[in-house]
Amino acid sequence: MTVIGWIQAAVVFGLVCLLVKPAGIYMARVFEGDRVFLTPVLGPVERLIYRVSRIDPQREMGWKGYAFAVIAFSLVGFAYLYALLRLQAFLPLNPQRFGNLAPDLAWNTAISFVTNTNWQFYGGESTMSYLSQMAGLAWHNFVSAGTGIAIAIALMRALARRGMTTIGNFWVDLTRACIYVLLPIAVAGALLLLWQGIPQNFDAYPAATTFEGVTQSIPQGPMASQEIIKELGTNGGGFVNANSAAPWENPTGLSDLIELVTMFMLGGALTYTFGRYVKDQRQGWALFAAMTVLFAGGFVVAYGAEAAGNPAIHALGLQGGNMEGKETRFGIAASALFAVMTTDTSCGAVNAMHDSFTALGGLVPMFDMQMGEVVFGGVGSGFYGIMYDTVLTVFIAGLMVGRTPEYLGKKIERREVLLAILAALIVPVLALVPAGIASVLPAGLATLNNGGLHGFSELLYAYSSMANNNGSAFAGLGPNLWWNVSGGIVMLFGRIAIIVPVLALAGSLVGKQAVATTAGTFRTTTPIFVALLIGVIVIVGALTFFPADALGPIVEHLLSLQGRTF
Amino acid sequence: MPSFTNPAAVEIGLLVLSALSFWLLDRYVAGCAKI
Asked: Residue B7: which of A68, A102, A496 has the nearest Cβ?
């Protein structure tokens, strides 16, 4: 580990911290319909969308209406993207004349982008037309991220309101998230990335002759516009297969910095927005503190493991850290930082190949996902994820002191705890059951890139990633009918089967009246609460995934210390 | 009997699976309402 490496991480996180308050205040104003500096420009656009879509922005929804709207929107988005991918050969903006995607690959990809997962069983540069990239994939990068933000805001409203039945209007929240939050930042960020050298054009791929005399096709296209929303919306789907490890997607140290900061920016800022909603900024900072500790812990372990390197390589007389699968221009620290941040959030973009990390270094991103991606998390999904962990935390605290648990003055009762447990358990079920089946099924094992323990790690990582809507992979896992179909099911239910109980939780909380704070109330702004919340997040993740992790990366790590590799 | 790798059979199967999945999610909302 180097001083420069630590400084890199400190600069990235420092910039995130600087953006949390202004972005948090901005979002709070946007979602309450207050005037912001972009209102003169975007206000008419917003009203036009409502008029054309026949949306009454004053009409609010109960939690079931909100949930049905989310599901209906996902269904329509899925059908649209599936049709686009199946028909792209007949549509314009296809200079490379790519054919239509096969049904199972189109199905997997459509679900992947609708659910904000962006798992990629395809190579973008060799599969997708520019129209598919822009009108299909990038469109969903915006609206799936907007959906996540909308749900987080609905939950904040539910926690702030007293004795009501409605939690907002999904269509209004989605529209505002996309046009006031995501679009302006994406435009500014895309221009910055363009300046750094990321292409933005509709040209056919030029052919270049390499030093060896081989002709090479150079992928390009409308990349910069897609690159920024890839991180800002914590989507992660790369324009090209190598994602942010490719020079076209991440050409410089500054582009790497921009991509890292935008990954955490909105997830961090939503904790501040939450504080504004509940009129107690300390509540938001408590969540931010828990996220910060978990992020720092993950980075220290991952960076330490990668910097320590591989004992089998050391035995050959080659000292130093583990550089396999990493870009030399980024090095170990920036690669470990990217891996941790992309899995703390639901992003899934990569600037190094996680498959080539050491066993311990690879375990960190895997465990980040298995904890539910609540460390800043996906835009919106990180907030509502840590909220059900918070309900479980105050429930456990209530059991400890023998009082009915409360959060923000609202009693947490049987229904809220059951919904939080449902949300917490659904992802482990969706990850572990298919992983168990795939590990004994020839079709599940057929396309793995690795054998032995590392092969199991690859498989477990894949389902952990898909169930949590992350999208990163231990590189090399190939598609077949089993993986396309099982992955699609896991991604779809991994997204919506959490959103529904979260909205039900919001519906339950919004009707509650506040109870008076007394000396016996468990305060949720103290270091004790933060420590307990961290404990719940880690222990729930560890208890559910530890046996499976022990069969893969943990044993792999212990054996690697004896010089064995897989 | 159509092959499992026949694209038409796969396409129809996936469309049925999609309809079933979204129907299950609709029922899931009703189930969560009863908790």
From this structure: A102
